[in-house]
C-alpha cells in the first residue's frame, strides 16, 4: 500500500513538474517548432535536397576539418574550432563528403538555439507576446536561414555572437562577474569560427581590462584563460606550420583579392572580375607565408599611391553588399523545371534584397542614436551598436558578397528595435 502511495505521489510530482515546465517554456517550444517547419518549407519549395552546389569556402572548411581529425594539422585560412565542431562526425567513421550533410544538421541546431537566445534577450525589453513576434521576424530573415544548408561559418558564428551578448546582457543586469567572463570567453572563441570578430573581441577585452585585472585570481577566469589559450594554440600552430604568428591568413587574401584588386583595376582603367582575377591567380602561386609579404607590400604601396581608388573601391563594395540579395537562392537550379521553384526563388531574392537594405539602414541609424544616447548609461546597448557598425563597416573589404556580412547584424538591430519599443506602453513588459 505504501509503495502505491509513493508511486502516486511521484506520478503527481512528475505531472505537475512537466506541466509547469511546458507552460514556462511553451513559447520556446513553439518557436523551435516554427523554426523547423520554416526550414522544411525551404527544403520543399527550393528542392534543396536535390541541389548539388558546394561553395568554394565550404571546400575550405571541409579541408580544415579533415586536416584536424585525420592529419592533426591546421589550415592556413580556417581556424580550429570550426574544424573541431564540424569535423566531429569523422570520429564516427563519416567520410569527407558526409560532412556536407552533417553540417546542415549542426547548423540547424545552432540556428534554433540562436532563436531561443534572441527570445530571451527580447523579453528583457518587451512583453513575451512582442518578444515572440520579434523572434518570428528573426526566423523570417531567410538570408540567415538559407545558410543552414551549407557547410559555411555564418550560422555557428552568429550563434557565438548572440550567446556572447546574451551573457553580456545578464552581466549588465546583475553585475555578476561570471556572466562577463562567459561573454568575453565566447566572443574570443568566435575568432576561431570566423576571424572577422578578432578586432571587436580585442575591443571588448580592452574595455573590461580593469574588471578582469581586479578578478584575475577567481576560478571562473579559467574559462577566459582557456579561450585565449585556444587562440594562442591556433596562432602558434599556424606559426609552426606556415611561418607566421596569426590566427588565419584569410584577412590578407581578402584584402588583396577584393578591395585592393578592385582599387588596382580602377587605377588601370580595367574591369574588376572576381571570378577571373589575375592578381588572385598570381598570389596563389606563392606559399601563404610569402603571400602575406606580397599583401603587406601591396597595401603599403596603394595606401601611398592609390588612396582615391581605394576609397572608391570600398564605397562600391559597401553599396553593392548593402543593396544586394542573398547569394544562396541565386545559385540554386530549377532541377525539376517547377513553376513553384521559380516563384519561390524570385520571391526570396526580392525579399532578402529588401531585408538587407532595410535592416542595414535601420542598423546604422539606430546604432548611431544608441551610441550617442547610451555610451555612458548602458554598456550592453553600447556594444550592440558598436558591433553593428563594426560588421557593416568591414563589409566594404569584400565585393559581391550580397547580404553575407550584413545578416550578422540583423538580430542586433532587432535588439535595438526592442529597446525602442520598451518605451511604448503597448509593447513594454509587465512591471515586476
TrEMBL record:
Protein name per its UniProtKB record: Uncharacterized protein
Keywords annotated in UniProt: Cell membrane, Glycosyltransferase, Membrane, Transferase, Transmembrane, Transmembrane helix
TM stretches of this protein: 25-46, 80-97, 103-123, 130-147, 223-242, 379-398
Species: Flavobacterium piscinae
Entry keyword Iron: no
GO MF, any single term: pentosyltransferase activity
Membrane topology qualifier: Multi-pass membrane protein
Biological processes, Gene Ontology terms: lipopolysaccharide biosynthetic process
Compartment annotation: Cell membrane
Domain of life, per lineage: Bacteria
GO cellular component terms listed in the entry, alphabetical order: plasma membrane
Amino acid at each position: 500500500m505504501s509503495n502505491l502511495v509513493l508511486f502516486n505521489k511521484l506520478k503527481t510530482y512528475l505531472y505537475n513538474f512537466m506541466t509547469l515546465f511546458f507552460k514556462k517554456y511553451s513559447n520556446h517550444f513553439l518557436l523551435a517548432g516554427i523554426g523547423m517547419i520554416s526550414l522544411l518549407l525551404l527544403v520543399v519549395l527550393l528542392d534543396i535536397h536535390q541541389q548539388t552546389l558546394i561553395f568554394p569556402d565550404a571546400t575550405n572548411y571541409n579541408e580544415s576539418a579533415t586536416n584536424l581529425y585525420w592529419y592533426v594539422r591546421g589550415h592556413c585560412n580556417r581556424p580550429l574550432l570550426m574544424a573541431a565542431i564540424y569535423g566531429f562526425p569523422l570520429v564516427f567513421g563519416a567520410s569527407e563528403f558526409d560532412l556536407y550533410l552533417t553540417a546542415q544538421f549542426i547548423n540547424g541546431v545552432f540556428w534554433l538555439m540562436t532563436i531561443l537566445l534572441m527570445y530571451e534577450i527580447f523579453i528583457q525589453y518587451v512583453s513575451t507576446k512582442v518578444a515572440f513576434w520579434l523572434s518570428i521576424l528573426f526566423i523570417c530573415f531567410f538570408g540567415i536561414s538559407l545558410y543552414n544548408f551549407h557547410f559555411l561559418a555564418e550560422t555557428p558564428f552568429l550563434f557565438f555572437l548572440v550567446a556572447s551578448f546574451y551573457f553580456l546582457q545578464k552581466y549588465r543586469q546583475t553585475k555578476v562577474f561570471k556572466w562577463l567572463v562567459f561573454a568575453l570567453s565566447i566572443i574570443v572563441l568566435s575568432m576561431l569560427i570566423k576571424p572577422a570578430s578578432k578586432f571587436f573581441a580585442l575591443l571588448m577585452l580592452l574595455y573590461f581590462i580593469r574588471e578582469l585585472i581586479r578578478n584575475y585570481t577567481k576560478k571562473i577566469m579559467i574559462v577566459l584563460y582557456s579561450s585565449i589559450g585556444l587562440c594562442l594554440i591556433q596562432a602558434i600552430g599556424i606559426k609552426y606550420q606556415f611561418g607566421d604568428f596569426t590566427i588565419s591568413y584569410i584577412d590578407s587574401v581578402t584584402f588583396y583579392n577584393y578591395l585592393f584588386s578592385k582599387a588596382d583595376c580602377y587605377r588601370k582603367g580595367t574591369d574588376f572580375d572576381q571570378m577571373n582575377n589575375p592578381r588572385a591567380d598570381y598570389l596563389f602561386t606563392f606559399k601563404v607565408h610569402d603571400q602575406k609579404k606580397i599583401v603587406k607590400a601591396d597595401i603599403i604601396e596603394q595606401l601611398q599611391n592609390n588612396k582615391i581608388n581605394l576609397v572608391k573601391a570600398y564605397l562600391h563594395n559597401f553599396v553593392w553588399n548593402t543593396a544586394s540579395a542573398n547569394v544562396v537562392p541565386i545559385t540554386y537550379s530549377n532541377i525539376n523545371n517547377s513553376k513553384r521553384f521559380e516563384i519561390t526563388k524570385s520571391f526570396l531574392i526580392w525579399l532578402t534584397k529588401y531585408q538587407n537594405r532595410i535592416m542595414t539602414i535601420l542598423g546604422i541609424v539606430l546604432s548611431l542614436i544608441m551610441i550617442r544616447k547610451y555610451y555612458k548609461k548602458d554598456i550592453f546597448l553600447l556594444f550592440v551598436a558598436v558591433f553593428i557598425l563594426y560588421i557593416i563597416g568591414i563589409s566594404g573589404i569584400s565585393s559581391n558578397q550580397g547580404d553575407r556580412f550584413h545578416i550578422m547584424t540583423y538580430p542586433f538591430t532587432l535588439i535595438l528595435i526592442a529597446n525602442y519599443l520598451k518605451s511604448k506602453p503597448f509593447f513594454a513588459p509587465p512591471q515586476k
